[in-house]
């Protein structure tokens, strides 16, 4: 991933294409992976291949499984040896596809202890507030993260699924090293947040980075550019993300090694100014549902 370079997360530097571990649990991001190659052994092999390919930033959450993603990461990679594992708290699960916010400080504190235990860590490098809870004051929730950082249980704080206004409120309280919002070539309502991150040197981690929609159809801009580069539309979508801002840290996820290798290869694709212009129209609205 030499062409993609590195990005800063506070005092940490990671390669600028990470891995999102949301897809390694079972269907609906619920329970363990159930069948080969989507099995615990398959997931462990996949995670080890992630690191072999030079990816040293892995993003997960206690809600993925729940707990399953963190447990598999620890089984595959602990004690990590230079790999930064970021996790999150603030969403709870009641079943496949069911996600509910819980920003109560007591929940955040309990979730942190669980993540430390499952990941076999004494300190989490990057702990992210998964989603603001409309039933809890934003500053009250974030205060639990600040307290945990002061206690040495987390190294850096990140946000996810936030507005520009919430980012500004958070920065008034503490250092924020990353923001993870939904963003892709066709989904850019978080542009204001991305611009703020770019200006401030905050890493922007786009989730669902391979959303492509109608642009993937024959004759669409992603399809045309992909054909010209001998690449897939997914690879062009990732290359575009890397090109549009130095703050961008994409984390494409998969449960398949072949797809993982395809994603990592996207870091070597250089898009022209014409390619970037062809992908310039703004896309559909953002969804803060993860």
Task: Write up what this structure looks like.
The protein has a single domain (6-278), classed as NADP-dependent oxidoreductase domain (TIM Barrel, Alpha-Beta Barrel). Helices cover 36% and strands 18% of the residues. The chain has 10 helices and 11 strands. The chain has helices at residues 40-52, 68-77, 105-119, 138-150, 164-171, 191-200, 221-229, 233-244, 257-265, 273-278, and strands spanning 6-9, 12-15, 19-20, 57-59, 84-89, 91-95, 98-101, 124-129, 154-160, 178-182, 203-207. α6 (191-200) links the parallel β10 (178-182) and β11 (203-207). α3 (105-119) crosses α4. The protein is globular, with a radius of gyration of 18 Å. The chain starts with 5 loop residues before the first strand and ends in a 12-residue tail after the last helix. The model is unreliable at 282-290 (pLDDT under 50).
Structure classification:
alpha/beta
Shape-level CATH architecture:
Alpha-Beta Barrel
Strand content: 15-25%
Number of helices: 10
What is the global morphology? globular
The major sheet is characterized as:
7 strands, parallel
Oligomeric state of the chains in view: single chain
Poorly predicted segments:
282-290
**Euclidean distance between termini CA atoms:** 28 Å
CA-atom Rg in angstroms: 18 Å
The amount of helix comes to: 25-40%
Specify the CATH class: Alpha Beta
At the fold tier of CATH, the topology name is TIM Barrel
Question: Nutshell version of this structure?
Answer:
The protein is built from 10 helices and 11 strands. With 290 residues, the protein is an alpha/beta fold. The protein has one domain (6-278): TIM Barrel (Alpha-Beta Barrel), CATH 3.20.20.100.
